[in-house]
Amino acid sequence: MTTPIRPQVYLGSRAPNFTADSSQGQLDFYDYIGDSWCLFFSHPGDFTPVCTTEIGAFAALHEEFKLRNCKLLGLSTNSRETHIRWIKDIHQITGFNVQFPIVCDDDRKICTTFGMIDLRNFDAQGRPQPIRSAYLIDNRKEVRLVHAYPLSTGRNTAEILRCLDSLQCFDKHDKKILTPVNWVPGDDVVVSPDLSPASARTVFPHHRCVRSYLRLTPLDPDI
User: Fold this and answer.
1) I need a surface site. Which of 42, 145, 177, 214 has the fewest CB within 10 A?
2) Is the pTM of this model over 0.90?
3) How many structural domains is the chain composed of?
């Protein structure tokens, strides 16, 4: 009896490496990421309607992710040949070239390892069907964000980009800040509760104290 593959991916865990075929040829996950961040996201299959809109939207944002040193990597359950035909169709429909690879996961090993599955959805062969999962993985190969959408719901690409900005802002400021609800770059941030009042006055001299547990500050020193 085959031992089922258990998901190995959690916030803070090291993303497991894998080697697989893709729309751009054989791919080693760690080599592909290199020293960059990576958005790794799954799809249930090629030539499916919601997935087509999503791939097109990510293709449109390719340069935005590149500016943030973040590579894009898709996953679907079909072959390289089918991926290539689908990518051409996506370009015809959306007008955007898909410059990032799409991993081939016909046997569902990668999506199962990453937990990109819904145990209520299986294909005709009884294999788990990938849902719309998305992982932001940093340049240390650490999983920093996990999104899971059901098959019926397309992703919000702007929200994923916003989350990447938040995580990179958090790292840039050495974990001294957090980002509040609906934050986008340029908005005030929250001073970390771990920062003492004295340290907060030194590091963020323009911060304001709404409550002892809620301190807000601009990041632009001229504000």
Assistant:
1) 214
2) yes
3) 2
